[in-house]
Specification:
alpha/beta, TIM Barrel, eight-stranded parallel barrel, three-stranded antiparallel β-sheet, 13 helices, 42% helix, globular, disordered N terminus
Length: 290
Amino acid sequence: MPTARRFGGFVESGHRRTCLTHDLSQDTPAMTTSIMNPRLRLLNALRANSKPIMTFLGLPSFRTAQIVAQTGVDGIIIDCEHGHISDDSMHSATAAIAAFGVSPLVRLRMTHADLIKRALDAGAHGIVVPQINTPEEARTVVSHAKFTPQGVRGQGSPFPGITHGIDIPTYLRTANETLITCLQIESKAGVENVDAICAVPGVDMIFIGPNDLALSILGYVPAKGDESEYINAIEKIVAAARKHGKWVARLSNDGALSKEHLKVFDTVAMSYDVRALQNWYMSELKVARS
C-alpha cells in the first residue's frame, strides 16, 4: 500500500494514475502519482461519480458571479462565446467563483491559443471549447492547454495558484493532470468524427451543445426531442465518450430535465444566469397579473 503525502495543498499517493482520463503521452510509463486537490470541486465530483451540476454565467458582473456561486452549484462555465464577458470580466468572475469553493470553467470564443492561455492563466479549473469538428482540432486544443512535454502552453501568470490554492511550482507540476479540457460536439461534422475526437489523449470531457447540434442536423431549434436523427447523434456522442473513457456532459434547461439527463450524463450545465432571471420574472409576472 503506497504511502500518501501532502504537498502544496495536494495529496499524492504512489500508484497508477487515476486522474482525468488517460496518460497524455502514450509513450510515457503509466506509473505516476494520483493528485487530489480539495479546491477542484468539479474534478473531484466527476472522479467520485457524484453527478455534479454546473451552470452558465453570461453577465459580466463580479457580484453576479458571487451570487451564482453561492447557490450550491459545483461548477460555473463563464461564457466568453455567447455571453457578455470581456477578458477583464472573465478574470474577475474566475476569482469570485473560486473564492466560494466552486470550479470556474471558461467557454472560449474559439480555439485560438491565446484564448486558451488567457483562460487558464486567469485560474480557470478548465476550458470548454466550442465547435470541435475534427481530431486535429482536438489535438490543437490539448497542445495549447498542456505544459511541456504534453503541450506548448507557456507559463508566466501568478493567478492560477490563487484559484487552485497552491503555489506556482506545484501548479506547474500538476496542471496537466488536474485541468479539465472539455470539447463541444455540436455539428454534423463533429458527430461524424466523434470517435476519433474522443480518442485524442488529453481530452477529458465531451459537452453536447443541443441547440447548435439541432440546428446543424435538423435545421431548426429547439429540437422537439423525438427526432430520430437528433437522438441517434446524441447516443453516438455518448457511446464514443464512454468507449474512450471520457466524461460526457450537456446543457439542461431546468431541474427536472437535469435530473433526467444525469441518469445518462456525468454532469450537466443547468440553465444560464440570463435565462434564469428572465424565467423567474416572466413566471412571477404571470401570477401577479392573473
